[in-house]
Amino acid sequence: MFVGVDIGRTKILVSVSDEKRNVISSKRIDTPTTFKKGLQAIFSLIREQVKKEPITAIGLSAPGPINRKRGKILNPPHFPGWENAPIVSLLEKEYKAKIFFNNDANAFALAEYRFGKYKKIKNLLYLTLSSGMGAGIIVDGKLLQGLSDTAGEIGHIVLDIDGPECPCGQRGCWEVYCGGLNLANMIQEKILHEKICTGMVKEAGDIKKITVIHLLEAVRKEDEFALAVWQNFIDRLAQGIGILVMSFNPEVVLLGTIAIHAKELLMTPLKKALLEYAWKRTLTACKIEPSIIDPALAPLALI
Question: CB-based burial of residue 171 (10 Å sphere; 0-12 exposed, 13-18 middle, 19+ buried)?
Answer without folding.
Answer: middle
